[in-house]
Amino acid sequence: MSRLQQLSDDLQQAFAKKLGSNVVAHGEVTIEVAPDDLLEVCTQLRDQAKFGFKQLIDVCGVDYSEYGSSEWATDESSSTGFSRGVEPGVNARLRFGDAPSYTSDRKRFAAVYHLLSVANNQRLRVRCYAENDELPIVPSVIAIWNSANWYEREAFDLYGIMFEGHPDLRRILTDYGFVGHPFRKDFPLIGHVEMRYDPLQQRVIYQPVSIDPRVLVPRVIRDDGRNAGESAETPVSAAGGNDA
Q1: For residues 213 and 30, which has the higher predicted lDDT (pLDDT)?
Q2: 60: β partners
Q3: Could you give the 3-state DSSP secondary structure of residue 147?
Q4: Residue 175: its pLDDT value, please?
Q5: pTM of the full structure
Q6: Contact (Cβ atoms closer than 8 angstroms) between residue 187 and residue 181
Q7: Residue 237 pLDDT more than 80?
Q8: Do the bridges between strand 122-129 and strand 28-33 make them parallel or antiparallel, or are there none, so unpaired?
């Protein structure tokens, strides 16, 4: 039995019904925990010797509202680029005041925790979905791992996820007067406002954005060997490289 599978089995045995899922994939173990059970499970992950996850590497937010969707048809490509015969998506071209609809069986927002056990040389991902899409709230884990402080502030700033119990939950990357949360899938790519210096008023002013929203061609990595015969010295184009 592999060490990853052993870790997965130990987690299942230790937490049983508290795990919404327990998956071994892509060389790592990912478990899902409900907000009500998050603090108890994380405390045991840190304190039990067979787990020993004493280091929190990262906390990140996720917005699943457009999960698996793309404006570009990237299943087929050629040496000249991707197919573009796709109807424009709505959320990527929103403007200020637009209200997109979101219908899915999946909860929209989640906080994902990346843990490290130095003693056991193992890593673990813990995912916790917020119950309410309109006001996503999950417990703060600062009392368990103090390094969560700035990570949780970042997830709050970029995704609007509230961390209950955080002692100083405020923006950390955007301005104090920033409107919205820029990593949400319904946040316009062009933003809400633009700023410029007004020589008459001799100060910086804000005004509605004057550019049209557009979606860039995604960089897609493929492992089907279509470029295996190309020379290693093949130049990379400025538009994003080979369709590897």
Answers
A1: 30
A2: 112
A3: coil
A4: 82
A5: 0.75
A6: yes
A7: no
A8: parallel
- pLDDT at site 178: 81
Q: Do the bridges between strand 137-139 and strand 162-164 make them parallel or antiparallel, or are there none, so unpaired? A: parallel
* Token pair recorded at residue 53: 């996850």
Contacts for 23 with CB less than 8 Å, ≥ 6 apart? 8, 29, 30, 31
122 beta partners: 117
Tokens 């920033």 locate to 178
DSSP type of residue 16: G
Question: Which whole number is the average pLDDT over 149-165?
Answer: 97
Distance between CA atoms of residues 5 and 101, nearest Å = 39
Tokens of 21: 């899922």
Tens of pLDDT along 169-189? Answer: 999 998 877 888 989 888 877
**Is residue 57 within 8 Å of residue 177, measured between CB atoms?**
no
Q: What is the CA radius of gyration of the chain?
A: 22
Query: What sign does the dihedral 101-105-106-109 (CA atoms) show?
Result: positive
Paired strand residues for 56? 115
Phi, psi of 19 (to 5 degrees): -100, 125
109-117 and 81-83: which strand pairing? Answer: unpaired
Q: Using an 8 Å Cβ cutoff, are 48 and 13 in contact?
A: no
Cα first-last separation, the chain? 34
pLDDT digits (tens, 9 = 90+) for 68-96: 666 665 566 555 555 554 555 655 566 65
**Average pLDDT in the chain:** 82
